[in-house]
Write a structure and sequence with these properties.
Two copies of one chain form a homodimer. Chain A has three domains: 3-171, Molybdenum Cofactor Biosythetic Enzyme, Chain A (3-Layer(aba) Sandwich), CATH 3.40.980.10; 178-250, 2-Layer Sandwich (Alpha-Beta Plaits); 255-421, Maf protein (Alpha-Beta Complex). In chain A, 39% of the residues lie in helices and 24% in strands. The first copy, chain A, contains 15 helices and 18 strands. The first copy, chain A, has helices spanning 10-13, 20-31, 46-56, 77-85, 93-105, 112-115, 153-171, 190-197, 226-243, 255-266, 280-286, 304-311, 315-321, 326-339, 388-407, and strands at residues 3-8, 36-42, 62-66, 89-91, 119-121, 125-127, 136-141, 144-149, 178-186, 206-213, 216-224, 247-250, 270-274, 295-300, 344-350, 365-371, 376-382, 420-421. Chain A has a six-stranded mixed β-sheet, with helices on both faces. In chain A, strands 14-13-15-16-17-18 form a six-stranded mixed β-sheet, with helices on both faces. In chain A, α11 links the parallel β13 (270-274) and β14. Chain A is elongated and about 80 Å long. At the A-B interface, α2, β2, α11, β14 and α12 of A face α2, β2, α11, β14 and α12 of B. β2 (36-42) of chain A pairs antiparallel with β2 (36-42) of chain B.
Chain lengths: 424, 424
């Protein structure tokens, strides 16, 4: 079965919006064992749409068409499909009634434009959209089924999961049982991870892939078929065991989410004192609902005065060692933790760049500390040749990893092959 | 002249990475007055690449091909182009020498794989890449010039600016003088902005467009030709005058950047006290180099205890009015400002959701205050039907806008048609 995607819309074609729908769709299909083989992006001209429908329907078996189902004059997917097929648009009574009901229930006046959304190519089979005013539809042309979906991401996702996937599985007899495990790593490059995993025998039906999403590298184990799925847990454990401390989470996209779920479940509280990371650690955690249950506060003490006044860092320590130093970051962590007797505090102080570096402490030098009720752990890392943004996100990841290891009762500080550490 | 783009690579096709190169390229071309008419995305199979080169070269005049120039076995663009053209790959001596030099200067051993990057289709014209090991090249097939560029974003951008654009302008005699002004608005919907601008007479050669990038709507004035460019300043002023307080910046992508440049230039200092925005205001500012010159600290006082202990909010105020209230957010702003006698302090306290709302204070209720050395300004807004992420980013934008207006000596609080305000 050959699957393709057609993305429509001037905004997508002209780069005014980045096409995240396309990436999401391909990813979801991949996780169901189905590959998208080509993607064509066109604007809002009827003749372009007609041409691409006619052309691609000769090559693909099924084509997901995204966008152009809205009520405005530049939403032309149904009209173009009717032209490509050489048939008229016909009003779908069922969807018209649905629209009338929807607008009256929501106390809104339906404009004539909205009625347009009920007009489909004559041979189209309507596809329900319980979360929007644009119904989907599918039409057979040449060898292909063209399956039309709304451009609104939320509506697209709903329709793909509830309607498109079942249709594809039924129509093409695809019932590949597939499963995916994702292993999140931190602190080591892809070539090193790959060389460690090379000696492993990966069972037939399982493929191993890498995805770099800074500051992490994710390892994907994709199993196709029941026999392979049965072997997935064992090979996942083998991969984790070979990679050891490089593995920081399983089936979570970031370390921040891993820390959030651990703290949320544990009931243990956290304070942060950030300098160079500038609120990144705090705001990444606050992004998760429920973070207020464990996060006492995040103190971005950007100036030296603030480190003294808010966190109680000793002016003498700042004078003796400078703001970017182990003693200062330890006092920052202790100070932030003690204010509300939080279970933990994370602190960072560093030079994010592009300016502010010295010979002794170049850009990318970052001191990081974790304070608990019993101890303070700290290290000074050197992240060279990276942008301001990456220095900040790598520093945040090191801080999270220290806390993660503490929560697991493991040694707090480990070596990362891709991040240098200064001797204390 | 018909311009198309071909994006190659399994990672892009399969959705493992979102194709930001495509959006960037289309956007840049648009700003030079040239439209991308179609975009095709294919994977790393030679036969797919050959087919798409042969097919699209019959329709387009120029095609930017992105990706597949690297040293590994799945980088197949040159090989596929040679096949499509029916000619052999030939080693380009100039690039081979360049590679040898580059590796020896960088004290690195060149692998046999890297040499592959010097092999181009026989009829190809090499295109220099001063910032990477993959040279570009261009080949004429059917009616089209196919112009091959590296997938690394930094290298692509360099090559498009330095080589592709001049080539297109020379080859196709396109020398349209174009200019673009971007006006950033906040707090009003696109339909309202459009209805206000409708009566304006837009001079010939100038087009007016809207781009929604939450929490902002950007208005683009695009002028093509010298006559239109000459009229751009006047029409820009008219648009700004019609929109009044809705305009928050010109040729800046966000309010955060506008605030950063204003504070950076003014030398006035800032403190923030964030609750529901959770470090968003602070981290957006810290993202800009130089922010340490004005940002004293950002105190994310997520818990009530922290509001009392760090900011000096009165426990009685919290008891009487609740954390999400005008009196509390005013005390937060005052407290944050006074700690280091900053010129300004911004404070937020609200219910970002999805849980935590009450009948009196539903999700989306956010109190926002600005403290100066002489006064405290505050308002309570109601952002309903929005995600946690949007509640936070809209609240941050309201806070920035209050400070922006204060810095401009304007009334700090204005009405936003798209954001409701509670009576005090």
């Amino acid at each position: 079965m050959k699957l393709e995607m057609i993305c429509t819309g001037e905004e997508v074609l002209s780069g005014q919006i980045v096409d995240t729908n396309a990436a999401w769709f391909a990813n979801v299909m991949m996780e169901h064992g189905i590959e998208v083989q080509r993607r064509v992006t066109v604007g809002d001209r009827v003749e372009d749409l007609v041409a691409v429908f006619q052309e691609r329907s000769q090559h693909a078996d099924i084509i997901l068409v995204n966008g152009g189902l809205g009520p405005t004059s530049d939403d032309l997917s149904a009209e173009a499909m009717a032209k490509a097929k050489g048939e008229p648009l016909v009003e779908n009574k069922q969807w018209r009634e649905h629209l009338e009901q929807w607008f009256s229930q929501n106390n809104r006046v339906m404009s004539a434009n909205n009625l347009k959304q009920a007009w489909l190519p004559q041979s189209a089979i309507m596809v329900d959209n319980p979360v929007g005013t644009a119904c989907g539809f599918r039409v057979k042309l040449n060898r292909a089924w063209l399956f039309f979906t709304p451009g609104v991401p939320f509506e697209l996702k709903h329709m793909v999961r509830e309607q498109f996937l079942p249709f594809v599985q039924q129509e093409f007899g695809i019932n590949a049982h597939v499963a995916l495990n994702k292993i999140l790593t931190f602190g080591h490059g892809e070539s090193l991870l790959a060389s460690k995993l090379e000696p492993l025998t990966i069972p037939a039906g399982i493929t191993l892939g890498y995805r770099s999403s800074m500051p992490h590298i994710e390892i994907k184990l994709f199993a196709r078929g029941d026999a392979a799925i049965a072997q997935l847990p064992a090979i996942t454990e083998q991969v984790k065991s070979v990679l050891g401390a490089a593995v920081v989470a399983e089936n979570k996209p970031t370390l921040a989410e891993e820390i959030h779920s651990k703290l949320y479940r544990s009931g243990k509280t956290l304070a942060t004192a950030e300098s160079c990371t500038g609120g990144l650690i705090t705001s990444q955690l606050v992004a998760f609902p429920g973070s207020s249950s464990y996060l006492h506060h995040g103190l971005v003490t950007y100036s030296n005065e603030s480190k003294v006044k808010v966190l109680g860092v000793q002016p003498q320590t700042l004078d003796d060692f400078g703001a970017v130093s182990i003693p200062v970051v330890e006092e920052m962590a202790k100070g932030a933790r003690e204010l509300l007797d939080s279970a933990f505090a994370l602190a960072t102080s560093g030079i994010a760049g592009p300016d502010g570096g010295t010979e002794e402490k170049p850009v990318g030098t970052v001191a990081i500390a974790l304070a608990t009720r019993n101890a303070v752990y700290s290290q000074m890392v050197k992240i060279s040749g990276r942008s301001r943004e990456l220095v900040r996100s790598l520093s945040a990841a090191v801080a999270y990893d220290m806390l993660r290891r503490e929560l697991n009762d493991e040694a707090v500080i480990v070596d990362y092959s891709s991040i240098k550490r200064y001797p204390k």
